[in-house]
Design a protein that fits this description.
By secondary structure, the protein is α/β, with parallel strands linked by helices. 40% of the residues lie in helices and 19% in strands. Helix 5 links the parallel strand 6 and strand 7. It is globular and about 60 Å long.
């Protein structure tokens, strides 16, 4: 059976693996691989639900929201915590100087991504909920432009745009993700698919592990590859900074990681991002071997 894997710029591990072209030989005997290219990780749940995708890689929030919408989510693996790769930014000369100013703010973010969890935690710390702010769904450079032009008050920025924004003297950091949440990439699928095709998950996770090791050892080559396939997004130098600033590695799902997903589901519920309680511990997982 051909394994259909999602590739999008929001998940660098899978995006780099896709463009290195090394997974194809690893899965040749099992039926091969078909890459499904798309622009936004937030589209992963609909592609899985429609049967156009078997495995996705996203931040930790999309699978929680997908489960809340009734998808039979199963978890395969996770990255290390990458909390430093997201921050809440404001203009230095603007009125938003601390989290005390959060009520009523217009916040640029990638709705449906892990920035939802980041914002939910910040809101709860201030005794607020989703209805107390306005989220503006924008991506990358569009968010930076909106902040500069005053169309939003705050920006939940992620790498590589965060790395570039930190160099701007007119930008202030209001809050960092690693002070509020654990920010991981997760690799996930549908429970039904995992039950039927667990043998395909093993070589995929082995390839992901080897690929993350390659990225850590060859950051300049990885940065050039990203710049080549994402022209005009950010410079190769900023990609290199992004790659060097984050830990690389793949960890099979375990009880502690699932407990983190449960805490996230509880935060999203308390802040009004989802409307029904979720029992994440009931998900099918790929046990460590």
């Amino acid at each position: 059976m051909t394994l259909r894997i999602g590739s999008h710029p929001d998940n660098l591990s899978l995006f780099i693996l896709r463009h290195r072209g090394v997974l194809e030989s690893a899965l040749a005997d099992a039926g091969g691989v078909a890459w499904v290219d798309y622009l936004h990780g937030g589209d992963s749940a609909s592609l899985l639900s429609d049967g156009r995708l078997d495995v996705a890689g996203t931040g930790s929030t999309p699978p929680v929201i997908a489960a809340g919408n009734g998808l039979d989510v199963a978890y395969l693996a996770a990255s290390p915590d990458r909390g430093a790769s997201c921050a809440l930014l404001a203009m230095k000369e603007g009125p938003y100087r601390s989290l005390d100013d959060l009520r009523g703010a217009r916040i640029a973010c990638m709705q449906g991504s892990f920035t939802d969890r980041f914002i939910a935690r910040l809101l709860l710390q201030q005794g607020l909920r989703l209805e107390d702010v306005t989220l503006v769904d924008l991506n990358g450079s569009d968010s930076a432009r909106a902040l500069r032009e005053g169309r939003v008050d705050l920006w939940a920025a992620i790498d590589p745009w965060l790395t570039a924004a930190r160099d701007a003297k007119k930008i202030r950091c209001v809050a960092q993700a690693d002070d509020a949440i654990a920010n991981r990439s997760l690799f996930w699928c549908r429970r039904r698919w995992l039950q039927q095709h667990e043998a395909l998950a093993e070589p995929l996770l082995d390839a992901l592990t080897a690929n993350d090791r390659w990225i850590a050892l060859h950051p300049r080559q990885a940065a050039e590859l990203l710049h080549q396939h994402l022209p005009g997004a950010v410079s190769a130098a900023h990609w290199l900074t992004t790659i060097g600033a984050r830990p690389w590695g793949i960890q099979r799902m375990n009880d502690a990681l699932l407990a983190g997903q449960q805490r996230q589901a509880d935060d999203l519920l308390a802040a009004g991002f989802i409307t029904q309680p979720l029992a994440i511990a009931g998900a099918v997982v790929q046990e460590p071997r």
